Amino acid sequence: MAINTSIIGKKIEGEPFAYNEDTVILYALGIGTGRDDLDFVYEKDLKVYPTFAVIPFFPTLIPIATEANLNMFTVLHGEQKIIMHKQIPPKGSLVSSAICSSVYDKGDKGAVLNIDIESRDENGELLFENKAVVMDRSGGNFGGDRGPKAEKIVPPEGQKPDFSVSYETSPDQAALYRLSGDKNPLHIDPEFAKLGGFDVPILHGLCSFGFAGRAILASICDNDPARLKSFGVRFTGVVFPGETLITEGWKVNDKTYIIQTQTQDGRVVLGNGTAEIA
Q1: Which CATH architecture has domain 5-136?
Q2: For this structure, is 182 an active site residue?
């Protein structure tokens, strides 16, 4: 089925997303947090990780994918960026609206969609934005604009990172993280994973994104969620539950760091990353 390019510029309103302290704590546990970071897993003075912003984003993405005629068997999540405007409260109700800003024809590589989602609280105040790049590998060659070349952001050659944090994921990490909303069987069902070419279920890319966000917050934000203003990455590799994620950052200036996450064997799984802090 051909990509429906009439989706470009069309605003789609999502359903209200209600959440509470348990939702926030479950997410924190899903990205590897434990009792050593009590403020994120205990309802007393509970803090919310900025990367929780991807949780209400996900249900709003589905109507876009459906209307764009994406083939969900050939879809890849290419990039993700969050932009924070206010701290996320530990409970509330959010309403998100999505716009597909562009669809590019990459020929045999597929079709690339750029999707922008805004999430607002009950008072209409903008809390955060999500910017996602989604590729349908079977959707190319529809005669559209190829779009600009992707920007390359790499760590400075030969320079040691300004911070490096290692977190070991649990063999059950994907089984836990999926309870925050992404129940794609690729992350839990061994038979389904084999259909996708994997020996075992793989970890959610947005779970790895959360692990990296934790590392950034702990290293350069004093674990203060208000200090992380934006964080974006390109998904460049697969993570298997039980692997170790090593997130490193190189300071560009007082506000900006280049971010990269790799596994214990040196495979880069989150690249082209940047974080902006207050």
Answers
A1: Roll (3.10)
A2: yes
